[in-house]
Amino acid sequence: MLGDHPSVVGPTVEVARAVLSLRLARRGLELPPSATMNGPVHVNQHIPTLLLVQNPELARSLADRKLAPLRRLRPAQRHRMAETLPACFECGFNGSSTAARVRTHPQTVRNRIRRLRDLLGPDLHDAAHALDYLMALHTWRLLPENRGDRMASL
């Protein structure tokens, strides 16, 4: 019905809080184009992204700080590590599960995990830092200059 026009659905709220829903829906229009391409965007499904786009300078600072060691890698290596790292967190750093997620050989993933540990240090396995790494990776995916090559300018 809306054709190519972006549309956003705010969260369901009581009538007295409709202004909040409208404000959040307007924020949803700030999402990257990839999030708004397939029909209406439901704001509740994009809360982490909205949090990051609220303060792009702060999000970029986090990404620069947490992912700086990856700059030492060639672009293709950076891309593979950036693809592997979130899968590692999702799979509890289990090589076989991570390998299935990123569709590569388990030994290749174990080598990448070792390399990531060498690059990023011991806090990589500290649960207190997992959110920082995941937010940093998500930030780099959101940056306009990185949408084609996810970690190009890292």
- Overall spatial form: elongated
Order of helices and strands: EHHEHHHHHH
- Got a strand count? 2
Q: How many structural units, i.e. domains? A: 2
Give the biggest sheet.
2 strands, parallel
β-strand percent reads: under 5%
How large, in whole angstroms, is the Cα Rg?
18 Å
* Residue share in helix: 55-70%
Derived from helix and strand composition plus strand pairing, the structural class reads mainly alpha
Number of helices: 8
Average pLDDT figure: 85
Describe the structure.
With 154 residues, the chain is an all-alpha fold. It has 8 helices and 2 strands. It folds into 2 domains: 47 residues, no CATH class; 90 residues. Helices cover 58% and strands 3% of the residues. A two-stranded parallel sheet has the order 1-2. Helix 4 crosses helix 8.
Spell out the blueprint of helices and strands.
Elements (H helix, E strand, L loop, with lengths): L7 E2 L8 H11 L4 H4 L4 E2 L4 H8 L1 H12 L7 H16 L4 H8 L3 H15 L6 H16 L12
Parallel strand pairs: 1-2
Helix pairs in contact: 3-8, 4-8, 5-6, 5-7, 5-8, 6-7
Notable features of this structure?
8 helices; 154 residues; 2 domains; two-stranded parallel sheet; disordered C terminus; elongated; single chain; mainly alpha; 3% strand
Q: Summarize this, please?
A:
With 154 residues, this protein is mainly α.
